Amino acid sequence: MHTSTTTLLLILSAFIPVSGVILAITPYLMPSGECFAVTIPSARSHDRTLVGYRRMYCGIMVACTTAVTAACMVAARLNPDHAFLPCFIIGLPALFILGYALMLVFRVKVQHVKQERGWHAEQHRAVAIIGSDGDVPHPISMRWNLLYVPVFALTLAIGYAGYDRMPERIPLQVNLSGQVTRSMAKSPMAIWLPALIFGLLALVLVYSQYVIVHSKKGVDPDDPRRSARAYGLYARAWSVFTLIAGLIVCMLAPVMELTFTGVIASRQAMVIVLNVLIIAIGGSATLSVMLGQNGSRISLGTHDGAGMPRDDDAHWKLGVFYVDHDDASVFVPKRFGVGWTVNLGRPTTWIMLAILIALIVGGFVAVMMLA
């Protein structure tokens, strides 16, 4: 096998264990008052039964991740082009599906434990921080997203300056051996293709920033000040990372233009793309482990309340879909996993999703027409 091809396969294969390990340790990244998408008293987080469930989930996911990784490595040795890619494309989503299915299984088990132990909220308590919140960090301003503008200006400048150097057939897709498998005819519209593709990605990233800025805060009513600061650090860190990672990824648009003009070879571009993905995914994984969901792993002193200030399990359908018509929040922290999700009980949510989907589909159609 060619050395460069081996390198590409190793880089791709690394995504499987990284993703699998993050899935495996997800139960340990959640706040102490949540276990497999079920609300529990924080003081009961170390209950022997619940600890056993977390270990069992983690063990199963690690074993399956090891099996999928081994299968991909064997496939890479047998046939990189026709065996490895199908194994990778099937194996990676399969791990996510398995992780979700296992979460549902253990969610039912935790619900039974909760019922048997008699854990319930005496009353629903909300929290508001009164006074100055100057010591509570906030996400960065949405104005920082204007930094995407010079990236796309550079992309178009490279495209127009190097148009005469573009070949009559511009390569769009190559296999792991570096052979072109798809190309498009040279035309002025080809200059806009990279900007359009990564412009769609930038749109999603800006939307992600908006979600972080306007999300409901993950604050514990039993310990409002400490949890508010932890959440603030968590939200700010993710907003900074989203911007930096987004700018790095969108710098692939100028790289794509340079590939069109022949300055960068297709195989070199592929290596650059995979390394950028490693930076983005590796950074995301590192941040998840360091901070936990809602900043649960940030050490600002501990507080494990004996009670349950609230119990909104009924609003979390299948553990991950939040539906509460009485909650004015459109964006809320995830119940299982690191990040944010939407309140499907609000009409605003559906309007925003419809607009976002329409923009993405419209952009995708435009890309297909150009290509």
TrEMBL record:
Keywords: Membrane, Transmembrane, Transmembrane helix
An individual GO BP term: response to toxic substance
Positions of the DUF1648 domain: 152-197
InterPro entries: DUF1648, DUF5808
Residues spanning the membrane: 6-30, 56-77, 83-106, 146-163, 191-212, 233-256, 268-291, 350-370
Any single Pfam family the record assigns to this protein: DUF5808
Organism: Bifidobacterium italicum
Name of this protein: DUF1648 domain-containing protein
